[in-house]
Design brief:
The protein is mostly helical and 287 residues long. The protein has one domain. Helices cover 79% and strands 0% of the residues. It has 13 helices and no strands. Helix 2 packs antiparallel against helix 8 and helix 4 runs antiparallel to helix 6.
Length: 287
């Protein structure tokens, strides 16, 4: 239950961060913003947990490096893909990771995820389709391909987190994940972007919110929670990010909500409830 509440916290703050990110991306280039977020997040983790990090840094470096590289690949391809497709379309394609997680586990581990999990995952993806609205029309372009890579990267990253947290300190994994991502973001910023200003004072509060709650808090809690939650279950709960993102955009940005978007939210919420009740369904079937 605590693990599920932790993942719900992640979904809530990632969703609430949508309006904040809309402001920040108007001041910072994508890779530079990632560098600011994750380098500061790594510093915060080290301040609070430096003894644990010093004791087992090299022991878990491989796992942290893989998790961080996958997250950078996912965020990077999603960001570049947004240059070619709309936000709704990107959100829907990215959300396919919810369905990919149990399917990849099925293929790799030869372990059937269960009909309840597959149904909940399909229901979640259907909800994201309705949230995307009219943006789903048109053929496939390079933005779609990049975002499919993003979805696959997110799915593999979630599975990798569950694999490496089974016998590693999740706090140290989080630190290495942040460190690897910040280095990759900094290098990409130097190569592909031009950044004239280190930090814009007009965005200080928004940046602090993103660093403290949505980076240091969320990504570290995700890794700690996934030590105790199945990856397919975790991915469904984290899909609530889109619902919270829509609600926060309505509250803070006065965006309107159509019937299809409300239906999409209802379907995603239903998928999460089904995933939460899965043990009850399985118990009845065994009975």
């Amino acid at each position: 239950m605590l693990a599920d509440l932790g993942l719900l916290y992640c979904a809530l703050f990632w969703g609430v961060s949508f309006p904040v990110m809309k402001v920040l991306v108007s001041y910072y280039s994508p890779c530079w913003l990632l560098f600011l977020r994750f380098s500061a997040g790594a510093l915060l983790i080290y301040i609070f947990f430096h003894k644990r990090i010093n004791d087992s840094f090299m022991k878990v470096f491989k796992g942290g490096f893989i998790i961080g590289a996958l997250l950078f690949l996912a965020i990077g391809t999603q960001t570049v893909g947004l240059n070619y497709i709309g936000g709704g379309r990107s959100a829907f394609i990215s959300a396919i990771y919810v369905l990919l997680v149990p399917l990849i586990i099925w293929v790799i581990k030869k372990k059937f995820p269960g009909w309840v999990t597959l149904f909940a995952a399909c229901l979640c993806v259907m909800g994201m389709y309705f949230l995307a609205g009219d943006e789903m029309s048109g053929g496939i372009n390079r933005g779609d391909v990049l975002t499919i890579i993003c979805a696959l990267s997110f799915a593999v990253q979630i599975i990798a987190i569950s694999h490496y947290t089974s016998d590693s300190d999740p706090i140290v994994l989080s630190f290495i994940e942040f460190l690897v991502l910040s280095v990759m973001a900094f290098a990409s910023s130097l190569i592909f972007e031009s950044q004239a200003e280190l930090i814009n004072m007009h965005t200080l509060y928004g940046l602090l919110f993103m660093i403290t709650f949505c980076t240091f808090g969320c990504y570290m809690i995700q890794i700690c929670a996934q030590k105790y939650a199945k990856p397919s279950h975790a991915s469904i709960i984290m899909s609530l990010e889109s619902v919270f993102g829509l609600l926060s955009s309505v509250v803070f940005l006065n965006e309107s909500v159509s019937f299809h978007m409300a239906l999409g939210c209802a379907l995603i919420f239903s998928a999460v409830m089904i995933a939460e009740l899965e043990p009850l369904f399985n118990h009845k079937n065994r009975g």
